[in-house]
Amino acid sequence: MSLAARTPDQLAQTRAISGLEPRLALIVLVDLAEPDAPGNLIGATMDHFSRLDVLINNAGFAPPRTPLVKIGQADQDRMVSVNLRAPIALARMAAAQMARQPEGGIIVNIASSSARNALPGESIYAATKAGLVAFTRSCAAEFRHYRVRTSVILPGLTDTSFIPQNKRLERNAMLRPEDIAAAVMGVVNAPPHVCPVEVVVEPARDPIRAGR
């Protein structure tokens, strides 16, 4: 397993949760907003493991909700780079490697319900996630000829540090990170002849409190 992020603390914590020995859980420090980061990540993974079975594109960036006319160029560029350009590059390089493997491989992209139901102040973020959904659907049709299955997961409101405390949100009703992980594993463990191309995961109850 290769773990990639910008900070070593996050990666060390994730590796500890996995229970894997360090030699089986490679840590790669990358900032996926940088153009050469996807190539560095795939290269480090291949150098260490010599194969690539599953790619999970889980990186994402979104500033606080901001009207489009007030979004800064830096935030705009980072959203496009991290949420769309990097997953496209990683999927392209991963698929090329997986196509050379007899067993093929699996690519799972993590989008957002914002791709379908965008709120004001999320225009660029929503556009990147909608682009990721369209990209995934095209890849699923293209890569199936190489035994590479491609899926996208669209989570609803999820209780993570990316969503600040808000009196309008009932956090107990929100999805949890482990719910998204379970959806990913459902895709990975699907029978070889099945490709769940688009998986929508929503809270059973609406976390947004009415009238507040």
Q: Could you give me the name of the CATH homologous superfamily? A: NAD(P)-binding Rossmann-like Domain
CATH fold node name: Rossmann fold
Strand line-up in the sheet with most strands: 3-4-5-6
Q: Estimate the global geometry from the Cα principal axes.
A: globular
State the end-to-end distance: 44 Å
Question: Number of folding domains?
Answer: 1
Mean pLDDT, to the nearest integer, reads 92
Computed over alpha carbons, the radius of gyration is 17 Å
The biggest sheet amounts to: 4 strands, parallel
Helix content: 25-40%
CATH architecture: 3-Layer(aba) Sandwich
Q: SSE order, as H and E?
A: EHEHEHEHEHE
Number of helices: 5
Share of residues in strands? 5-15%
Low-confidence stretches: none
What is the CATH class?
Answer: Alpha Beta
Please report the total strand number as a whole number: 6
Going by helix content, strand content and strand pairing, the class is alpha/beta
How would you describe what is shown here?
It is a single chain. This protein is an alpha/beta fold and about 210 residues long. The chain has one domain (about 50-200): 3-Layer(aba) Sandwich (Rossmann fold), CATH 3.40.50.720. Helix content is about 40%, strand content about 15%. It is built from 5 helices and 6 strands. It has helices at about 10-20, 35-50, 75-100, 125-145, 175-190; strands at about 1-5, 25-30, 55, 105-110, 150-155, 200. Strands 3-4-5-6 form a 4-stranded parallel β-sheet, with helices on both faces. Strands 1-2 form a two-stranded parallel sheet. The protein is globular and about 50 Å long. The model has no long low-confidence stretch (mean pLDDT about 90).
